[in-house]
Known about the structure:
Layout: E1 14-18, H1 20-29, E2 39-46, E3 49-57, E4 63-70, H2 76-89, E5 94-100, H3 104-112, E6 116-125, E7 128-136, H4 145-148
Parallel strand pairs: 4-5
Antiparallel strand pairs: 1-2, 2-3, 3-4, 5-7, 6-7
Amino acid sequence: xxxxxxGLPARLGWHIVSGNxxxxxxxxxxxxxxxxxxxxxxxxxRDGNIIAGVIYENWNRRSIVCHIxxxxxxxxxxxxxxxxxxxxxxxxEKVISPVGSxxxxxxxxxxxxxxxxxxxxxxxxxxxxxxxYTLKRSDCRFLGENYGKKRTKPTTSP
Length: 158
């Protein structure tokens, strides 16, 4: 029986989660790889199913690389958490998000979050070019009053 004794699942609703399952979920959707030894993953579950996630890797104290996968609606708390981690926990100045030029949906998501195209590597991706989107701490609108207070607790450190 479910988590409440009435046949309902134990994890109804939205939950921010982290760990290997999230990293593997994201990696499968971005045709990438997740290694728990060198990366961190934060995800969003809805009714016990992962619907969004971010892998963070290549932290060098100044920047970090992220890979984002979304298959559902994002919540303000999740958006706050995925920007809190690189900018406040890891204390980087810039987040880098590589996106293939054929992935229009990811390009739209990146630009809607405030990322800007900083570089384009010609023919460096299976879909064509590899676009490097970046977001500077000073340009991140999700760290302010509207989003920052919606986190319930700080995310974990690197």
